[in-house]
Amino acid sequence: MGQAIAHAFAAAGHPIQLAARGAAGLDTVQTDLALRHGVDVTLHEFDVLDSNGFGGFVDGLPALPGVAVSVVGYMGEQAENEQDQAQAALMMRTNFEGPAGILALLANRFEARGSGTLVGVSSVAGDRGRATNYVYGSAKAGFTAFLSGLRNRLAKKGVHVVTVLPGFVNTAMTEGLDLPEKLTAEPSEVGAAVVKAVQKGRNVIYVRRIWWLVMAIIRNIPEPVFKKLKL
């Protein structure tokens, strides 16, 4: 998904700064982006779990970006998350603490500059806790709330914050799952939707519109009924 978003921004003429653990392994992606879209592409080592390294990471970028996108996700297994505190903590740190921390730092830099857009890819799983993935969902709920508050804080500072709720996406994280076709987006759809949201100044987007209806229904099911459902 992250690579698809990078391609979408590169196609729109944006220089790309790719950040990831083992960034050197993305050299073929770097070459593809640069040749296909004719933009500068740099690679940067980044560990979302290493909060002590966030400042050095941002300082080491060739330039403070105009748009920063956080697309970090680790679902794990619900049953394991329920029983293994360390595993649950890792999932929470990966989906909430780390992404919120790096965006908070970038928010301060963007605010000082007076411009920029921050994009956080969260999840529909955070719209309401469900028995089948509430540990992951609670982390994403926290991230969604963080993005909402950050957007409110920066609204008059020249910095915009976009929350992306992709729904199901055909990626390695969902491989092997029996996903409904009408609710499942391709990574390229996510990339196009994120670029459009930034260009249009959108606040919160679901990649496929049907998710607005799906999640509105789920959020409004009365709790006594909701407890009896297998969702």
From TrEMBL:
UniProtKB keywords: Oxidoreductase
Q: Which InterPro entries match?
A: NAD(P)-bd_dom_sf, SDR_fam
Give the top-rank taxon of the lineage listed in the UniProt record for this protein: Bacteria
- MF-aspect GO terms: oxidoreductase activity
Any one GO cellular component localisation term in the record = membrane
Q: Which family does it belong to?
A: Belongs to the short-chain dehydrogenases/reductases (SDR) family.
Stated name of the protein: Short-chain dehydrogenase
Tell me the organism. Answer: Antarctobacter heliothermus
